[in-house]
């Protein structure tokens, strides 16, 4: 007996859950959970990521190494996702969102958190359906630059 086809809403919800798991793994510094979310096997070489200000990174190993470096050098990070939109076409899903990020670098070595920094990044996450569920294929983050009003405020100081 064939399994019934999942509804478009159920597929979108599954992608949203996979996307949230990605950001949860980043927030908790759980590299093993993060690794489980990325495509592996024959498609591992086609995995890509672009962190804001970085060149494109290609291949699962290089991508995961970059996240390990970010996690090792970030004391605290929290993502508030807004403007989330997801579309599913067959075995591919495209999710776009705005990452409202609050982060800090390590403090003085005494267990304290360094200065908190806020930022905005627009992100596109591409997922592929696998037998194990939706897996990240590509992540691209671009910083949102300060608007003209922000620049005018700096001139007044």
Automatic annotation (TrEMBL):
Domain (SnoaL-like) ranges: 15-145
Pfam families referenced in this protein's UniProt entry, alphabetically: SnoaL_3
Full protein name: Nuclear transport factor 2 family protein
Signal peptide segment: none
């Amino acid at each position: 007996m064939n399994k019934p086809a999942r509804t478009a809403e159920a597929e979108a919800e599954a992608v949203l859950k996979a996307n949230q798991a990605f950001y949860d793994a980043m927030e908790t510094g759980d590299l093993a959970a993060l690794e489980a979310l990325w495509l592996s096997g024959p498609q591992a070489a086609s995995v890509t990521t672009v962190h804001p200000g970085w060149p494109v990174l290609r291949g699962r190993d290089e991508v995961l190494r970059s996240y390990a470096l970010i996690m090792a050098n970030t004391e605290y990070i929290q993502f508030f996702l807004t403007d989330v939109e997801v579309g599913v076409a067959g075995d591919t899903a495209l999710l776009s969102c705005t990452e409202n990020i609050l982060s800090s670098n390590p403090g003085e070595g005494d267990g304290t958190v360094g200065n908190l920094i806020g930022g905005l990044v627009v992100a596109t996450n591409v997922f592929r359906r696998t037998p194990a569920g939706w897996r990240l294929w590509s992540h691209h983050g671009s910083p949102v630059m300060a608007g003209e009003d922000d620049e005018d405020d700096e001139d007044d100081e």
